[in-house]
């Protein structure tokens, strides 16, 4: 029974008792009734206020959830808009730069062949021209795949051999640093529907970042497991990690903290994974370093 109903019942019972027990004094009965009615009114008002307060609290919670969702959508839209305008810009620019670059590189090659034996300085200059042309060409390839990675060619792919391939390529490519590689693949993880070339490209980028962030003798782990109905491929390192102020900018095009970085590795990887209907997530490890997870939709075919 709610407060005001209880108070009313008590007041009625007390008044009835006074009348039945033959009380002739009218004043105490009236006073009692007045006090109890007042108590009932106050109790009623308090209960009403409590209900209102919890109602408004629920509305405030709903509003804050909606606000969070709107904010996340807004950030997503801003990023998509930035990606699309930068994509268009870079595609045009890359094509414009590619042709003269090919001419420079070709001219340097002709010069190297036709001018007979070169002294050390000239040979060095030609080598610089060649290697810088290669570097710029690589950068442009990145730009172009960022501007519009080809549509994925999905097929059922065995994940473990794919990870072995990535580990082989990574181990081959590192210079000057000693890194331990580990691989953890969930038992019975069968084929996953994805574009193997593109996933390899994504994982290679993540592995290179992980190695660059790791100390000498650090460990980098590649893992694959099912989570709910998705397949998660993780690249885990124990390196210097990402400063809290930078964590929201990791997937922004051109965001880099490296002297020679392009800041395109992660945004390209992000875009490729999204085209496959998946997600690329970055998370700081509890102790040290980062975990990047490629989450692919669970179109897995069990082995
Ligand atoms: P780049 O490697 O050319 O800088 P990326 O897009 O691959 O471009 O990475 C962007 C930035 O994200 C890096 O410069 C680095 O600051 C940060 N980052 C990426 N991966 C890691 C990692 N595993 N550990 C720490 N920082 C990372
Ligand atoms: Mg990188």
Topology:
Elements: H1 3-20, H2 26-114, H3 120-147, E1 155-158, H4 159-173, E2 179-185, E3 191-194, H5 196-213, E4 218-227, E5 230-236, H6 265-275, E6 279-284, E7 290-296
Parallel strand pairs: 2-4
Antiparallel strand pairs: 1-3, 4-5, 5-7, 6-7
The structure holds adenosine-5'-diphosphate and magnesium ion.
Describe the protein in words.
The chain is an alpha+beta fold and 303 residues long. The chain has two domains: 1-148; 155-302, 2-Layer Sandwich (Heat Shock Protein 90), CATH 3.30.565. 59% of the residues lie in helices and 15% in strands. The protein is built from six helices and seven strands. Helix 2 runs antiparallel to helix 3, helix 4 (159-173) crosses helix 5 (196-213) and helix 5 (196-213) runs antiparallel to helix 6. The structure holds adenosine-5'-diphosphate (ADP) and magnesium ion. Adenosine-5'-diphosphate is lined by residues 205, 209-210, 213, 237, 239, 241-242, 250, 255-258, 261-266, 290. Magnesium ion (MG) is lined by residues 205, 208-209, 265.
């Amino acid at each position: 029974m709610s407060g005001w109903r209880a108070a009313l019942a008590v007041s009625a019972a007390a008044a009835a008792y006074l009348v039945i027990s033959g009380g002739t004094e009218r004043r105490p009965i009236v006073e009692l009734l007045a006090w109890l009615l007042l108590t009932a009114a106050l109790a009623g008002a308090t209960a009403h206020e409590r209900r209102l307060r919890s109602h408004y609290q629920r509305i405030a919670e709903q509003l804050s959830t909606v606000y969070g969702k709107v904010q996340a959508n807004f950030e997503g839209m801003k990023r998509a808009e930035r990606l699309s305008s930068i994509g268009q810009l870079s595609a045009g620019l890359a094509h414009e730069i590619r042709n003269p670059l090919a001419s420079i590189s070709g001219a340097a090659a002709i010069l190297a062949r036709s001018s007979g034996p070169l002294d050390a300085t000239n040979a060095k200059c030609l080598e610089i021209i060649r290697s810088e042309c290669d570097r710029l060409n690589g950068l442009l390839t990145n730009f172009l795949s960022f501007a519009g990675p080809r549509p994925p060619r999905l097929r059922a792919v065995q994940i473990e051999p794919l990870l072995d391939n990535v580990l082989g390529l990574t181990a081959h490519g590192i210079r000057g640093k000693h890194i331990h590689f580990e691989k953890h693949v969930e038992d019975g993880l069968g084929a996953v529907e994805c574009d193997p070339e593109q996933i390899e490209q994504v994982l290679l980028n993540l592995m290179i970042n992980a190695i660059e962030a790791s100390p000498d003798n650090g460990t980098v782990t590649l893992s694959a497991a099912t989570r709910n109905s998705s397949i998660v491929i993780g690249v885990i390192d124990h390196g210097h990690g990402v400063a809290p102020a930078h964590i929201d900018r990791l997937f922004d095009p051109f965001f880099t903290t490296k002297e020679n970085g392009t800041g395109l590795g992660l945004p390209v990887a992000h875009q490729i994974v999204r085209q496959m209907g998946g997600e690329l997530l970055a998370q700081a490890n509890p102790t040290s370093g980062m975990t990047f997870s490629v989450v692919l939709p669970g179109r897995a075919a069990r082995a």
